[in-house]
Amino acid sequence: MKLAFNYVLKLKSLPSNPCHEVVFEAPLSDFSAVTKSEPNLVANTFEHFKNANISLNIIDNLHVQCPPPWEEHNITVDISLTKQNKENTSEVAYQKDFFRIKEKFSNHYALFTDGSKLEEKVAAAAYFPENPDRSKTTRLRDGASVFSAELTGIAVALTEIKKLTKYHKNFVIYSDSLSALQAIQSKNFKVIDIRRLYNLIRKFPTYVHISFVWIPAHVGIQGNENVDKLAKAALNRSSTSGKLICYSDLKPKRNVYPESTASSHVLTL
């Protein structure tokens, strides 16, 4: 059942796949009526989605333009603070290290980003220390991953940066998400939101440079504390953004039923 669940999730995100039309546009009765004695894969999996209260209509389309691999981008990623062992490093030591990094980027317009999740609720924020009123928050659809929230926070920051490129050319984004910054650094275009980030960046004027810097969370760095509060507050917003969810974010929901229940079904094509 898990394999079928994952297959349907990914197939939903690939509308150009030849099987997409067969699975999602054919009447469900066509699948259910194969035989009464042999439940088939599609009918059983759709029933699983229904019982788990998962809507396939919220799944994002994977066909987002991939930036040309030969294209250069005016960005740098600094994760030097990860060299320290957080368990053996005091908050004061981290704060001193941050101020040294902050001095290095003293001629950059600074932003802080963060993502937050509480149960099914997910939100993201971008904080502007020089102009707090410009700070932005958004609540994602329920069930999105923290990783997606972190990348959404960075996307919100980049969207605002685009409006500021007439007045500034150097920007620094501080984030406590190592996985997000490593995905940006490695140009992991398998991640749809990384493609979107680079598609945003490649539209900036060529004189604009963006630095991404990893900072530890909850060690008293004021900008990080402020953006964390913004992201947590956004969890209580009544409405969510229209942003669709990457199919992989919904994979944990496949464990809604006990393994024994899922394996009890005989699946046939």
UniProtKB/TrEMBL annotation:
InterPro entries: RNaseH-like_sf, RNaseH_domain, RNaseH_sf. It holds the Pfam family RNase_H. Gene3D superfamilies: Ribonuclease H-like superfamily/Ribonuclease H (3.30.420.10). GO terms for molecular function: nucleic acid binding; RNA-DNA hybrid ribonuclease activity. Residues 105-236 form the RNase H type-1 domain. Transmembrane segments: none annotated. This is Pol-like protein.
